[in-house]
Amino acid sequence: MSVEKENVKVSPQEDNIIELKHVRIGFKSGTQMRVVIDDLNLNIKRGEILGLVGESGSGKTTIGRAIARIIPTISGSILYNGVQINGKIPYSLDRELKTKIQMIYQDPSASLNERANVDYIVSEGLRAFHMYKNEKERLQKVSDIIVRVGLRPEHLKRFPHEFSGGQRQRIGIARSIVMNPEMIIADEPISALDVSIRAQILNLISDFRREKNMTVLFIAHDLSVVKYISDRIAVIYQGQIVEVASSDHLFELPLHPYTQALLTAIPIPDPHIEKNKQVRIYQNTTDPTKTKLFEVYKDHFVRCLPEEEHIYRSKAEEYYKKHQSK
After folding, report:
1. pTM of the entire structure?
2. E-strand spans in the chain?
3. How far apart are CA 156 and CA 310, in angstroms?
4. pLDDT digits (tens, 9 = 90+) for 288-299
5. Which CATH number applies to 16-325: 1.10.1370.40, 2.60.120.10, 2.60.40.60, 3.40.50.300?
C-alpha cells in the first residue's frame, strides 16, 4: 500500500486543538452504568494526523463520538481550542462545533441517505448553516468538492445505491470537507473498502489535511494502515491509552506489551516468515486503577505501574540516544 505522508508544522501557540482531561464515558444498562472510558488523558495537536488504534470494543469510536458531542461524558473535560465542549454549552458554540468538527463514518452505505441524491447529501450542512450567498455559489461549492474527491459533476443527480463502496466513501468525505472544518474524525473510514481502494482514500484524507491544515483523528484497528498516514499514534486498550509516540518511534520502539502484541499481529508478505512468526497474546493482570501514563521520553508516553517507570524510561533513553547519534 503506497500512501503519501507529509508532516505539517504545528503552531507553537495553542499547540493542542483538542485536550481530553480525566474523561470518563459510560452507557447505562438497565439501572447499572457500564464505564467504557475511564480517566482518559489525551491531546491532539493542531494540524496533525493522530492515529487511535486498538481492538474492537476498546473505546476508539466512543472517544471520537464524545469529541463530536454525539455521546455525553460522565465526567472530565474535553477542550476545543481551550474551550470546554462537553456537557452543557451555549447554543452558539454548539452550532459552531457542528461546522468545525466533522466525521467520516466507517460504513458509507449506512451513513448516506439512500432517498437523497448526492447534491442534497453533500450540501445538507451548507443549507443547515447558510454557508453560501446564493444557489449558484452553493452549486459551485458542491461541484468543486465532488470533482476534488474524484467524482464528476453529473454524479450529483445520482443516488448512493448507484455507486461502489469506494465512491460512496468519497461522497462521505466530500460532505465533511465542504463544511471547511478545522478537524475531521475519521472513524475506520477504510475498513469496509477493498484493499485496492484503501490507499486512494488514505491519500485523499492526507491531501486535504495538507491543503487545509486540518487536524485528523484517524481511528482504526490496523496498525499497519495507521503507520503510513499518522504523525503520532495512540494505542488504546480497554478504555485506557497505554502508549503514545510518533508513528516511526512506536514501530521501532514499542514499549507497552499490548503495543508489542498488536505489532506481531500484522501480516508479513513473506509466507515463510509469516508461517514461523510468533504472535504475542496480551493478557492484562495489573489493576488498571494503579497504573498511570508516564512520559518516559519527550513525547513518548507509556502506561505502567509507578515502580515500572524507570524500566521503560531506561529503554527509551537508550533507544533515543542511539537514534540521535546516527
Report:
1. 0.92
2. 16-29, 32-45, 49-53, 75-80, 83-84, 101-104, 183-187, 215-220, 232-237, 240-246, 292-297, 300-304
3. 58
4. 889 999 999 999
5. 3.40.50.300
